[in-house]
Write a structure and sequence with these properties.
Elements (H helix, E strand, L loop, with lengths): L4 E9 L3 H15 L10 E5 L19 H4 L2 H6 L4 E2 L2 E8 L2 E4 L13 E2 L2 H15 L2 E4 L3 E7 L2 E7 L2 E3 L5 E6 L3 E9 L6 H9 L11 E10 L9 E7 L8 E7 L4 E9 L9 H10 L1 H7 L3 E11 L10 E2 L2 E3 L15 H21 L4 H4 L1 H6 L3 H8 L3 H4 L4 H13 L44 H8 L11 E3 L2 H11 L3 H4 L5 E3 L6 E3 L9 H5 L5 E3 L14
Helix pairs in contact: 1-4, 1-8
Length: 547
């Protein structure tokens, strides 16, 4: 097939925080360089309909990176809902919870901004465009281009294919974008990023990456001005002793509350459903006091890379660099990654600026990126808690003990590298597990707060062009029968969007890709590694606006 060709200095995949920070830093420094040389040309490819539509987080952010990335005038315009006025930390039980007498120092966030990450991403996108970048939305990056071992660009995905792969009348072949450097900022478990890591063995000697799925709602409540700026973090119920994770409540204003639950995907019980765990969390009396009388107005789900310092791959190859969540850059104790994504973008932007000044984009020049990033506080935070996530696989108490040791000794204890296995390998047979607690049927008073998965998907705004090749492929349908018998069809439970259901004979799995939230939980958690998540046609997926 003949394809058009576009040429840019830099092409970026994914308009997330890390990518936009990279581009903004590069173009601002180029504009301040004071020479006659034109700015580098930059293209950002984003698969969602609008910048920010696929971005989901809590989000209480550590603000230290904002003042580095943005000028004082830009900081005044940055969209902040409110700041943390008070905080609390609870260990929940089924009937309530115990408030810790203090917030652990590593979790403290008083004075931090509370934001909508999708709104913040849209704002950074506008700053990038004002600085000279081009952003093409509704396009997916289907393939990395390579020549003599060097990444030379990307191929944009085709549009207008029918379900069987044939060309419709409106077919458009995706062009090739040739660039001196490709910046991969796809987020956790990105398609091109994972392929590059595997092909170039960038994670050789690293721990396996492990993930959590974060399920989140935005709830509108009756006006409670005294609640604004309050945040709560929780651990314990409804998770079991061996499942890492926790919940949060962020009071964005007197009428809006963001609430969510992160469940580590190395859980063992195949009857667990992260969405139902989230619903049980919402029923707890400690949580109810913040959301009672409210109604759901937004929903989303996304995976977080929790493996930490020892799971982070190499981030540079000849012609490409990986930024943000795609490189596993997240503080696995605080579950905070926005400021670290910004720092990776600042380091990448500074490196690209130096390459542009010298007109040298060689591998030797790009290698300055990880060196710069590893001098920053985010990497040092990851290093300090490098064994914490792995310790929690042995239970809550060993995990808490490791948190204390790591914090007191600045990461020196425990010594060495605790191992992490792939999430899907932890699943146990259904016959040996106690069924997870079921969510009671909601009363009429709870009906606007206790949504089933399909109703919640409605609040995510998810849409896909239905007449396109299915982007969720079951590789070996015959394995589904064995999985149903041994594990009880866990895909029908772990997906937070109800993409997978049993067929009428309960012998196989039906898929409904139009519900997909693009979280990729299925590809990560399936115990047979029988599901492949492909890129759908650009423009599809969730439509997050205030999340």
């Amino acid at each position: 097939m003949e394809r058009d060709s576009l040429e840019f200095d830099i092409v970026c995949v994914g308009a997330g925080i890390a990518t936009l920070s990279t581009v903004l830093r590069l173009l601002k420094r180029a504009g301040q360089a004071g020479n006659a040389k034109a700015k580098p040309t930059v293209l950002i490819i984003e698969k969602s309909k609008n910048v920010g539509n696929h971005v989901l987080s809590g989000a209480v952010i550590d603000p230290e990176s904002l003042s580095v990335l943005l000028s004082p005038d830009e900081l005044k315009e940055f969209p902040i809902a409110t700041t943390v006025a008070s905080e609390a930390f609870y260990r929940l039980s089924k009937t309530g919870g115990i408030k810790l007498p203090w917030v652990p120092p590593m979790m403290s966030a008083e004075g931090f901004p509370i934001i909508s990450l999708s709104a913040a991403t849209r704002h950074l996108g506008k700053l990038c465009e004002a600085a000279g970048a081009e952003i093409y939305t509704e396009f997916s990056a289907a393939k990395l281009l390579e020549e003599n071992g060097r990444i030379t660009g990307i191929q944009i995905g085709d549009k207008g294919l029918d379900k069987d792969g044939s060309r419709k009348q409106a077919f458009e072949a995706g062009p090739n974008v040739i660039a001196k450097v490709v910046v991969l900022g796809e987020g956790a478990c990105g398609k091109l990023t994972e392929q590059l890591i595997a092909d170039r063995k960038l994670n050789e000697g690293c721990n396996h990456q492990t993930y959590a799925v974060g399920v989140k709602e935005l709830i509108e409540i009756p006006s409670r001005p005294a609640q604004t700026g309050k945040i709560v973090h929780t651990f314990g119920y409804p998770l079991d002793y061996f499942t890492y994770g926790g919940g949060f409540v962020y009071c964005l204003s007197d009428t809006k509350v963001a609430i969510g639950m992160a469940t580590a995907l190395d859980y063992t019980n195949p009857t667990a459903s992260p969405h139902d765990i989230f619903r049980l969390f919402k029923r707890n009396p400690v949580i109810q006091q913040f959301i009672a009388g409210g109604k759901v107005i937004g929903y989303g789900a996304k995976v977080l890379p929790e493996g930490g310092y020892f799971a982070a791959p190499k981030t540079v190859v000849d012609g490409a660099m990986i930024v943000g969540d795609g490189a596993g850059l997240l503080d696995s104790l605080r579950l905070k990654g926005v400021h670290i994504a910004m720092q990776s973008g600042i380091a990448a932007g500074d490196t690209l600026f130096e390459c542009w000044q010298k007109d040298d984009y060689s591998l030797a020049g790009l290698k300055a990126y990880p060196e710069k990033f590893q001098q920053m506080s985010g990497w040092k935070q990851m290093k300090r808690v490098r064994n914490v996530r792995a310790a929690f696989t042995h239970g809550t108490l060993p995990g808490i003990a490791t948190v204390g040791m790591s914090w007191i000794t600045n990461g020196a204890l425990p010594p060495g590298k605790l191992r992490l296995n792939e999430d899907w390998k932890h699943m146990k047979a259904k016959a040996g597990c106690t069924p997870w607690e079921q969510v009671p049927k909601p009363t009429d008073a709870q009906s606007q707060l206790q949504m089933d998965r399909l109703t919640d998907v409605f609040f995510s705004g998810t849409k896909h062009e239905e007449h396109q090749p299915c982007h969720l492929r079951i590789l070996r349908p015959e394995d589904c029968r064995e999985c149903i018998g041994k594990f009880g069809a866990p895909c029908t439970l772990f997906c937070p969007a109800q993409v997978y259901t049993l067929n009428d004979e309960a012998t196989g799995i039906k898929t409904d890709p139009s519900n997909c939230l693009h979280c990729k939980t299925c590809q990560i958690k399936d115990p047979y590694q029988n599901i492949v998540w492909d890129l759908p046609e650009g423009g599809g997926g969730p439509q997050y606006k205030e999340m």
